[in-house]
Amino acid sequence: MMLVSRLLSQALVAFTIEVDNAFEARMPHRTTRGPARGAEGPWLVSLAMWSNFLRYVPAGGVAQADVGDLAALTNLPGLQRWGYVRVAGGMVHPTRHGLRADALFRPLCAEAEDRWERQFGDGLRRVLEPLASPLLPRYLPVAGPTRHTGPPAGRRADHERADLAALLSRVLLEITGEYEAEARLPLGVAANALRVLGGGPLRPREVPLRAGIAKEAAAQSVAMLLRHGLADADGKGPSALVWLTARGEVAARNYHARMARVEARRPAEALTNALMPVVEGAAEAVRPPEAGWRNHPPYRAQTAAFLADPLGALPHHPLVTHRGGFPDGS
Prior knowledge:
The chain has one domain. Helix content is 50%, strand content 5%. It has helices at residues 4-26, 47-52, 68-71, 76-81, 96-120, 123-128, 164-182, 187-197, 207-211, 215-227, 246-263, 268-280, 283-286, 300-308, 310-313, and strands at residues 62-63, 85-88, 91-94, 231-234, 241-244.
């Protein structure tokens, strides 16, 4: 049976891209690449930043101590630098851009979920809700190819109705925590870079497309594999090749065996039956608007791969970088 963690991850990435595409179309912003490069407005952020932080900053502000556990999940300095919040006198205040982002993300999540329910039914929510702990964050933390931690110390239960991204994230976070408690290699590295290198030598530039992750996350993941003696490389520049060592091949086999043990503790068949149609039909979710940054170089090739084969091309575990959601929120 296909790994549940893979399907949870691919569904979460597809939902995130759908919401982010709609946010990009409605929120004045600037980006580092694409049509909005150098435009006026705040730097574009993604659902990841709103879910774990911006949604908890009301119009009147909030004491920084009250959101300290949340700041550890996201990129607070970035949110300040990009123009969404300001921190002063022990308080975190939303800017007008932060208020607008909050006002947009809430209905956009509902719109995306409504479309998914019309297309796939409500079976996914019904399966996820009993498994999603309100103690866990509403989105994967900014971690990149490093270990995820459990709930922040002193984390309060969040009983506000969870959107689909929160349900997917919480179930995936619990699986991730159990996996990483038994493993030396972070799941985000094992499920993506380690997995694709198990198919044979690759040029470093091929890893992002094969794994479905951003090039920055791919470079960090490969560097980790090299550092731990799980991969080796030859050459430099475009002609370089990277491959798994004998230890790396053992690690790749252990990834699948360990994940199978973790997932055996869950209703894998029910989750698979609910998730598979969503992922197989995810092309509509990841289709960018014509002017969207995902529809322009250097991201166009990855978007085309997602559209052609979501089940084969979407990542097997999201890697949320300091810039936000997939590939990097910019």
